[in-house]
Amino acid sequence: MESVTLSLPEAYDLALEVLSANGFSADHAAAIARNVTAGERDGCASHGLWRLLGIVDTLRKGKVSPDAEPQIHDQAPGIARADAGGAFSLLAYERALPLLLEKARHNGIAALAINRCVHFSALFADIEPLTEAGLVGLACTPSHAWVAPAGGTRPLFGTNPIAFGWPRQDKPPFIVDMATSAAARGEIQLHQRSGKALPEGWGIDSQGQPTTDAAEVPERRDVDFRRP
């Protein structure tokens, strides 16, 4: 397989070109391109340029709007709400961020809910602008049932990603972004795509037996990070 090295600006331009050519509006394409480029920048390949394949596939299947304009609502003194209109969440988040920051500074705490959105992206990119503004941030999103509980054979839990972070004086911010499964679903998909064996403890097969073959992890039966 041929390897190509791109600078971050080149990675962004490539993502923008792919997204625009497939019908995303300029604003949505730019927001998504910024996010997947951040994944590459931070060494998170499972949420980098590889995600473009799934993003375009989701659009072609009619599961996401390519151009919906987010509607931002001042819901309450400490709450902002963004209606993404069936689009990916990233542009809605960017548009709602100034209101969220304003509320957090005024009240000491604030929350943003993004409704009617499709979500695929790493959450650390949502936390970074909060820590850059000198704030503590927490982000989470639900997911489908991909994860079998310890000792189980059927998916029951979501990967339920969660991220948090806070600024530090004279140091980069401390940011954690994790799934509550043994590994992020995207990491299993990347191993399958490249034909690499999974680390022990990442997945189980249809019989509930541990496997290191990503192709044998049907419906992404990841392993719960908890143990009996």
From TrEMBL:
The protein's Enzyme Commission number: 1.1.1.154
UniProt-annotated stretches for the region Disordered: 193-228
GO molecular function, one term: ureidoglycolate dehydrogenase activity
Keyword Oxidoreductase: yes
Extent of the signal sequence: none
Keywords for the protein's UniProt record, in alphabetical order: Oxidoreductase
Biased composition (Basic and acidic residues): 217-228
Domain of life: Bacteria
Keyword hit for Cell inner membrane: no
InterPro entries per UniProt: Mal/L-sulf/L-lact_DH-like_ah, Mal/L-sulf/L-lact_DH-like_NADP, Mal/L-sulfo/L-lacto_DH-like_sf, Malate/L-lactate_DH-like
Family: Belongs to the LDH2/MDH2 oxidoreductase family.
Record PANTHER family: MALATE DEHYDROGENASE, OXIDOREDUCTASE-RELATED
Listed name of the protein: Ureidoglycolate/malate/sulfolactate dehydrogenase family
Species of origin: Klebsiella pneumoniae
